[in-house]
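Continuing the batch. This is chain 6 of the set; chains 1 through 5 are on the previous pages. Same settings as before, nothing changed between runs. Recording input and output for traceability.
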Amino acid sequence: MHLFMTKLARSMAAVGGAVLSLLILLTCVSISGRLLNGFLHGSLMQSIAPGFSDWAINYVGPINGDFELVEAGVAFAIFAFLPLCQVTAGHASVDILASKFPASVNRLLRMITDITFALVLILIAWRLGAGLASKYSNGETSFLLEFPVWWAYGLSFVAAVTAAVVAIYMAVIRTLEFLTGQIRVWDGVETDL
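Output for chain 6:
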């Protein structure tokens, strides 16, 4: 089961990484177009090559609706990376005191943390599902590109449900570890038991 969850988490992270890479490329191209368009509008280009400048202005500029695509894509990417963080215990932690606690207390803390993560991710997935239903039923579209907003909600919902499933699995694992005193999934965070 752990192998399946790890593969699922890695697959979601790979898709999230691809989306994030495309968004970075989109942003760079849009900013470059915006800068070049401003340069073509500038007095230097208008005085040196006004004909070329006026012609190029029609074809060079920012990508229309880039912020709408970035907004939708980043939301998906964030949720796509959560399962991998959950299954590998990759979330940021501060363990100034935890390293001094006995192993049983650390197992309890890990169990509470993973149960809390699971509950929060279930709540987020539930509310994203409600938002998806609302956006789908009212037919809302984005301002510039006019794509249905529910598309972004749908992608984020799929990633959030995946994150919630992985978080539930890890909460069950950490609960079993607490109850039995045996580490079932070693991820480098454990102390010697």
